[in-house]
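hey team, just a heads up i'm posting the complex here instead of the shared drive bc the drive is being weird again. everything in one block, sequence lines first with there labels, then the predicted structure for the whole assembly after. its two chains so it's a bit long, scroll down
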Amino acid sequence: MSTLSQRPRPRTRLSLRQGRRGLLYLALLGGGLIWLYPFLWALGSSLKSTDGFFSGGLNPIPSEFHWSNYSEAWTQADFSRFFVNTVLFATGTVIVTLLATSMAGYVLARTEFPGKKLWLGLVGVTLFLPHGYTIIPVFDLIQRLHLLNTLWSVVIVQSAGGMVFGTFLFMGYFTTIDRGLEDAARVDGANFHQIFWRIMLPLSGPMLATVGLFACINAWNSFFIPLVFTLSRPELHTLSVGMFNFIGQNSTAWTLVCAGSVITLLPIVLIFIVLQRFFINGLAGAVKQ
Amino acid sequence: MSLLDTREHRRASPPPPPVAARPGLGRRIRAAKWSYLYLAPMAVLLLAFVVYPIFASFGYTFYRWNGIGAPGNYVGLANFRQILHDSIFWGAVGHTFVYAFVLVPVQLLLALALALVLNNPKLKFALFFRTVYFIPVVTSAAVVGVVIQLMLANFGDSAGSLLAKTGMTDGHIDWLGDPHTALAVIIAIGIWHTLGYNLVYFLAGLQTIPAELYEAAKLDGCGPVQSFFRITIPMLRQVGVVIVVLAFIGSFQVFDLVQVLTGGGPYFATEVVNTYIYHLAFGGSAGAAAEPDIGLASAASFLYGLLLIVFSALQVLALRGISRRRTAANQ
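-- predicted structure starts here --
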């Protein structure tokens, strides 16, 4: 009697647990759909006709596919130029950031020199000072260097903002590399530059990917800096600034705006999905330290 | 966070040679010439575009200056006085604080709940879900703002007619044009946009908690709720402090979303400090086409910077104090 009454119990429990797990997956999936809904809606709406856009409302699925929205956005709305500018801007920022932060991270991690502690202290303090309130003197400085309204100014200012974070990441990474490697290379007659460029830098692949990806994503999405430094030169606008201006001037071409947002968002989302482990590990490492 | 990095580094490097054996300063500097050269690009960029501007912007605060030519019209402390008496500035400070103090707790609670779910080792596709919830983070706030603006233009009517059936409104809601709803909408979008950061931070924190702790607690008869409050929360405290500080720093700097969604309007209802400063410095304020005033903008920047430094210091002290007292109580 007792054995009979006990037997079904584990089974109901199990199915209950399975049911609960199923519900959890459903909730996570549903939540995920809602979470990404703005992107799905933009993607769908970018293919709608103008009438379909207004009658479709929040339904992301277009009734017919208007691929011409993309060609129009690309050529007539100048998104091709914004795209090229953004690629140049992001590439330049990644190169400048990687060069400056890897070199600085290396000497701070592996060499001793007078003033090192003072410098590290200063760098630490800048982390706590509010940034972004200093745009005016930066603007003035760029103006005096005659770099205003050039892509260079945007690259330099954007890179400068990422210096501290990248340097600290490289410093932490170079500290963990075995010192024996450098000693062995020195015994073999390698000089300072050869040790860095031929041995240490190639060894720091994962960190190059992490810092580079951070710089790339931040540059791609940057709005304030390109807005301020290319204000009067529309031909230098990046995607996010171009989009902002396009809306100001064409308040009705919504399907083109949606196509423009897909052109802006899709590349960086794809880059992130492919390289996400570097990005996430970098973030996780930074917060754990 | 990264300061600890420095400490780590010091521990790893060999002890400095005794003072007596040290060569002279000049020789040591000369011996380290390559170190300085390698440090130079980073140092120049940081000094020119981060450190110098902090001092320079302080200098501008004493001038009435439209940004063209050299500042010449010295006005003493008048800019500070004007800012301190400007109700729009204090309104902007208020909106920024409302933004931060609503966003941070809601976002962190949501992120923690999601992290706890995704941290379950038995959960399949955890990586997939993490990617899904992280994606908004890597997208441009400016562009996302535009897309959501378009959605709201459509959504305003669909949701508005739904609400009209319940008799709450007359059918049309202008979400971003109504001073009562605009800031709330911006906060909701802000929560959505950067939640992924905190999700990843919490996941990283959860993964540092050894599984044995939970097993031991289970053996001692602890339920999941008890082990959450007795193990998870205390073990997350250190990472938690960093997460809270970072979340506040980020929220106080909000600009892109507001600029794209409302430009600070309607009637300054969503003006945050960064848009306020931008309007002062570059004109194009909502409504009035004011002459750019760099001195005034710098004074506002400086005052807000001071406010933030004080707030950050208090926050760090308070969080450290709580954390220390709790640890002491636990021992």
